[in-house]
## 1
Amino acid sequence: MPDYRYRDIAKMIDHSLLNPTLTIDELKSGIRMARTYDVASVCILPYALKLCADALAGTTVQPSTTIGFPHGGHKTSTKVAEAQTAVAEGCTELDMVVNISQVLSGNWNNVYADIMAVVDVAHGAGQKIKVIFENCYLNNEQKIRLCEICGSLNVDWVKTSTGYGTGGATTDDLILMRKHTPPHVQVKAAGGIRTLDQLLAVRNLQVTRVGASATKTILNECRNRLGLTEIEMTAGEPAGY
């Protein structure tokens, strides 16, 4: 028998609605699916965050969005403004991208200050933050330094990728991030998690969240292996949705 329950798997998934070509109807459909499957969060395009937060009110699914996405090159003041707006619109988990250019340049004081500024907004409002490294562009020394910085700032998750770089989550990176991040900081895998087996593989590496757009496929397979029926999309839309 599997060593997991449906909820164990569903609550690992941040359902990604970040493709810039998604229409408002597709975003609404994605939110509705995430509610029905009771995932951990919906990470949505920032302009649709308020819609998402309203639609998820009263559920256990968290509304989340991105900060400095996807390249991390925004000025820190812009990231702070994005974070403040997100919190005001109901975001409970913020996924921010480090300044990749500053990381590659070795400007660690700037990297630290950039992350700290957004952490202060999120934690000051009682919300959580995930810090995205975009590992495909970094060497191991840079990844380790980011883990150390994030640990010292008490971020909630370190995250491998945006899903829009040249590569996604890898086993080696996840092992490295878990090894060099303090126990109180969790690890999120993003980019390339499309099947239940891939999710279970990273779960075995102590990953607690994954970013996924193939959520329905993953969770239907989970229910099938557990001998449960597939979920039918019959949940009603919330008022005003």
## 2
Amino acid sequence: MRFLIHKRRNTPTIIIVALVDVLIVLLIFLMVTTTFKQQSALKLKLPESSQAQKSGANENPPLVVSIDTNGVYYLDKLPKTYEQLKSELISQAAKNPKLVLAINADEKAPWGKVVKIRDAAAEAKITSLVAYTKEPAKQ
């Protein structure tokens, strides 16, 4: 009687270096194709303007003050009183004399609140103010 002799097969080897290379290429691909868009935590309906400009990357990003429909001030997504906001603007302007203040107000926000922010900016000696708007809908 003749028995079959089975040859032992070598276990397959996995080349880890090649897998790491593939993972690095995938990581680079995801980093390049991902868009980094700043999402606002506040849901504001910005007023429309025919002069609206798209904001791009700036060397000196603006300090954004938001006002919701109830007239509450937000700085760095935190609610602030007018006095807190004014003192923060004064301290930020002292640190950076070329500070740009951006007003991000809901279209139903009280106009008096926007005027108060402008007054606080003037008191802090901030000379550059911008207002965020959106482009009108195409008809």
